[in-house]
Amino acid sequence: MASVMQFINTAAGEDVTPYYWNVPANFIVPAVYYPSPEITTNGDALNSYEMAYTWFIKFFCHEDEDAHQIALRVLTAIQGARRCIPLISMDGASTGRDFKLLDPQIRQVEPGTWQMQVRWNSPRYYDVAEIQKAVKLFMSGIGGTLYGE
To answer: In the chain, where are the structural domains located?
Structure first.
């Protein structure tokens, strides 16, 4: 999520104030607000599942057209990067890897506010308890018995 925020903050421009948890009553505009994303899960494969993230990020300005221009600038930057977001480490440094967003969308949600829907899927492995490896192998059948360790 921090990787997406960093990408959007850079694309939105230095004059856009980011808000990460709550928007204060007297917030500064232009602004971008990152609420918590919606997360759903799906079975993916025999040994993994998928977490599907949907994030509704809002852009605020005094004028509708200004909020639209910021949202459009970010949308264009995401699409221009082929929807690939560079991953950053915990200290904010680039990891040299990226991940791909699903097609983002923008729409006006109220006067002076445009919302961007950003989605991506994150595959995860199921938690697996450690299993005791076989120490001895005994097989019998046609041709005799096989013993091994």
So the answer is: 2-148
The SS3 assignment for 90 reads: coil
Which architecture, in CATH terms, is 2-148? 2-Layer Sandwich (3.30)
- pTM of the predicted protein model: 0.80
How is residue 20 written in tokens?
């990460």
Name the packing angle between helices 64-80 and 2-12 (round to 10°).
Answer: 120
Decide: helix, strand or coil at residue 2.
helix
pLDDT digits (tens, 9 = 90+) for 22-80: 888 899 999 999 999 999 998 867 888 999 999 999 999 999 999 999 999 999 999 99
For the chain, percent helix, then strand, then coil, each to nearest 5?
Answer: 20, 45, 35
Task: Specify the DSSP element, H or E, that contains 74.
Answer: helix 64-80
